TrEMBL record:
One Pfam family, short name: CsbD
Family classification: Belongs to the UPF0337 (CsbD) family.
Stored InterPro entries: CsbD, YjbJ_sf
Lineage: Bacteria, Bacillati, Actinomycetota, Actinomycetes, Micrococcales
Protein name, per record: CsbD family protein
Region (Disordered): 1-50
Source species of the chain: Brachybacterium alimentarium
Bias (Basic and acidic residues): 1-14
Domain CsbD-like as annotated: residue spans: 5-56
Length: 68
């Protein structure tokens, strides 16, 4: 996962946590749910990218990484 992707996902997680917290404090269930959804989306992106990295690593291991 490149640094830009990590930063964007971390930003989404923190933003979602803030939104969820604001929703809890104000009693706004919709804002709270939006924050939870935003965090879930960032987690899903992280897991997908980790899977891609794992597959790429396996392929590089089998066929040899020609970039090195």
């Amino acid at each position: 996962m490149n640094t830009d992707d990590k930063f964007e996902n971390a930003k989404d997680k923190v933003g979602g946590q803030a939104k969820e917290g604001l929703g809890k404090v104000t009693g706004d269930k919709e804002t709270q749910a939006e924050g939870q959804a935003q965090q879930g989306k960032a987690d899903a992106k992280d897991k997908l990218q980790d899977a891609r990295d794992t597959v790429k690593g396996a392929i590089d291991g089998v066929f040899g990484n020609k970039d090195k």
